[in-house]
Amino acid sequence: LLLASPGSAWELHVSTHHITLPVGSEGGFFIYLDRALNESVWAHASVREGDRVVALPGPSWLPLEAGEYTWVNVSAIGAGHATVTLNTSLAFIRTSEAFVHVKAFNVAWLETLSDVVGWIYFVAWSISFYPQIYLNWKRKCVEGLSFDFVGLNLTGFLAYSFFNLGMFFSPVVQAEYRSLHPTGVIPVELNDIVFGLHAALATFITAVQCFIYEHRNQRVSLAARLLLGVVWAGAAVFGLVTLAAGSHWSSPWLIYLYYFSYCKLVITLTKYMPQAYLNFKRKSTSGWSIGNILLDFTGGTLSFVQMCLIAYNYNDWTSLFGNVVKVGLSFISMAFDVLFIVQHYVLYRHSTMEVLEN
Question: Which of 49, 82, 106 is the last residue in one of the domains?
C-alpha cells in the first residue's frame, strides 16, 4: 500500500453524477477512492442544495475500504433538484468531482410525455429547413426569400455550433467552466451539437441556392452586411485578444465562447425582421415557404409545453419564469411565426405574384 501524504493526489470518485428518482422512492450511488492508502478513511455526504428534495437516510460518515465501492443511499422526499456533495476525513484527498445531481419528479407518465414531446419538437425543428430548400429547387428561383434572413440565420447557427463544440469537446473550456461552477453540469449535450451543425448545413444549402437560382437582383442589405461584419470582425478581434492576453484573465476561452452565444441571441431577435418586411413590401409571401414557419411554430410551441411539463413535474417554476431571456426569445420567435402565418393566410392570401412577372 502507498503511504498517504499531503502531496499525494488521491481522489474521491462517484459512480454517476446524475440520478433521477420518483418522489417517495430511494436510490443511490457508489463512491470509491482512485487508489488505496494505508490509513482509515471516512466519507461524509451532505445535501448542498435541495434539502427539501432529498434526504440521506444512511449513516453520516461512511467507511472507505481499499479497492471497494461504498453505497450512498438517497431518498426522494419532494419534487425538484438537489445536489449531494462529499468530503473525507483526510483533507489531502481531492473531492472536487465528488458530487451528484439528483432530480426528483412527481408523476412518471409526465416524465415519459415530456421525453416524447421533446423528440417531436426536435424532429419538427430539424425538418423545418427542408420545405424552403424544396421550394427553391422546385421553382429554380429564390425571389421572395430574404437574403438578409438567410445570412443572419447561417451566422446564428454557426455561432451556436461554435459555442456547443467548444463547450462539449474542449478540456480547457470545461475546466474554466467548472472553476466557476464547481458542481455545475456542462450546459451542452450531443443532440445540441447535432442540431446546430445540421441547421448550419441546411442553411448553407439555402445560401448556395440563393447564388445559383434566379433571384431578380435581390441581395443582402447594407444593414445586414454591417451586422454580419460586426459579428465576424468582433469574433476575429476577440479571438486575437484572447490569444495575446488571455493568460491574464480568469476564464479567457469560456468568455470567448460566450461571445458567440450572445451573437446568437442578437441574431435570433433580428433575423425574422427582414423577411417580414420583404413580405410586406411585396404584399406577397410567394417564394417564402409557409411549411418552414408551421414546423418552426410547432417546435416552439412543443418546446414551451415541455418546459411547463418539467416545471410542474419537478416543482421548479423558477426554471421556466426565472430564465426571462430564454422564454422571451421563444415567445418572440413564435410571435414572428404567427405574423408570417397571418401574412400568408390572411393579409396576402389572394396575392398571385409570381417570380417571373415583369
Answer: 106
Are 188 and 73 in the same domain? no
Question: Can you say whether the dihedral through the CA atoms of 78, 79, 80, 82 is positive or negative?
Answer: positive
User: What pLDDT digit, counting tens, does each position of 277-293 carry?
Assistant: 999 999 999 999 999 99
Residues 99, 14: contact at Cβ < 8 Å? yes
Whether 143 contacts 355, CB under 8 Å: yes
Residue 349 phi, psi dihedral angles, 5° rounding? -70, -25
**What number of other Cβ atoms are within 10 A of residue 241's Cβ?**
13
Q: How far is CA 71 from CA 56, 96, 216, in A?
A: 11, 19, 70
Rounded-to-integer distance, Cα 38 and Cα 82, Å = 34
**Cell numbers linked to 156:** 446564428
**Looking at the DSSP assignment, which residues form a beta bridge with residue 55?**
75
Q: What span, in angstroms and rounded, lies between the C-alpha atoms of 180 and 192?
A: 22
Q: What would the pLDDT profile of 245-268 be if each residue is shown by its tens digit?
A: 766 777 788 889 999 999 998 999
The CATH number of residue 81's host domain is 2.60.40.10
Q: Which of 344, 271, 333 is nearest to 300 (CA)?
A: 333
- Give CA separation, 339 vs 241, 269, 277, in Å: 41, 14, 11
82 strand-pairing partners: 102
Yes or no: say if 69 and 15 are a contact pair by the CB < 8 Å rule.
yes
